[in-house]
Amino acid sequence: MVPVTLTVVRPDQGEFSWSVTVGPDQPRDNSTANQIKAVLGRAEPGQRVQLWIERAGADDDAFAFDLGFVSYRDLWRMQLTLPADRSSIATRGFIPGADNDDFLRVNNRAFHWHPEQGGMTPRDLADRMAENWFDAEGFRLYEQSGCLAGFCWTKVHPDETPPGGEIYAIAVDPDFHGQGLGKPMTLAGLDYLADQGLTVGFLYVESDNDPAVATYRSLGFDHHSTNRAYRLTIE
Predict the structure, then answer these.
(1) Are 70 and 231 in contact, with CB atoms under 8 Å apart?
(2) What is the rounded CA–CA span in Å between residue 87 and residue 131?
(3) C-beta of residue 85 within 8 angstroms of C-beta of residue 187
(4) What is the pTM of this model?
(5) CB count, 10 Å around CB of 233?
(6) Considering only 5-9, 134-138, 191-195, which range has the smallest mean pLDDT?
């Protein structure tokens, strides 16, 4: 197997100074371990380093532990076949510029606890909107009485076989909790993806988020694979 270069980033927020991602096709061998050790060698004492192993298998804990990492987070990929049931609510596409502030307000209220999605700034949103995958029509908004009540942001992955459609981020404003909007908001995103001709829908969810997992299972999603995160403090 030909080694694949690790993804290494220096996050500009959060608890980690460095983050390393081992892709699903990256061999868990000495070459990969040495690349990770090289990153650890660049970190300073007291800094925390995060290691993500995508589609983690039975032997990956031992691989990470041998490097000094401890697991702390599982992110499940849940998947279903499209089309799913149609949504019962009407949504519209995101309008860049006009909807930015309302989206950021709802997003940061709903995801105040989330290490990646929470605390999003206008610059963060602009950066994501500049990505090649961004599709304003696939960014579905639901309003009540002129207020943004929730959103379902989708992302198409044409490089997968077959191409997949992701529920990239979904949230309901806390002021609208208790109305049962989670399911129809998810289905609105799946409707859009199915209408693009996609036959696979998926999303990522924290493995210990029992209410969300139960909701997604009720819609037909099943656990497909696990991305596992590990952390290490440099001494």
Answers:
(1) yes
(2) 28
(3) yes
(4) 0.88
(5) 13
(6) 5-9
State the angle between helix axes of 122-129 and 100-110 in degrees (0 to 180), rounded to the nearest 10. Answer: 110
Measured in residues, the chain has a length of 235
Distance separating alpha carbons of residues 30 and 63, to the nearest angstrom: 10
Measured distance CA(176)–CA(197) in Å, rounded: 32
Q: Which whole-number Å values give the CA distances from 82 to 31, 190, 200, 222, 225, in the listed order?
A: 39, 8, 5, 13, 18
Tokens at 221, concatenated: 């999603």
Task: Choose among 105, 194, 120: nearest CA to 150.
Answer: 105
Rounded to whole angstroms, the Cα distance separating 23 from 55 reads 8
Residue partners of 87: CB distance under 8 A and separation at least 6: 184, 185, 187, 188, 190, 191
Say if residue 2's pLDDT is above 60: no
Instruction: Report whether 225 contacts 53 (CB < 8 A).
Output: no
Please list, in sequence order, all residues whose beta carbon lies within 8 angstroms of the beta carbon of residue 40, skipping any fewer than 6 positions away: 49, 67, 68, 232, 234
Measure the CA dihedral 179/182/184/190, to 10°.
Answer: 170
DSSP states along 133-150: T--GGGEEEEEETTEEEE
Nearest CA-CA partner of 111 in 184, 176, 171, 178: 171
In the prediction, which pLDDT does 110 show?
94
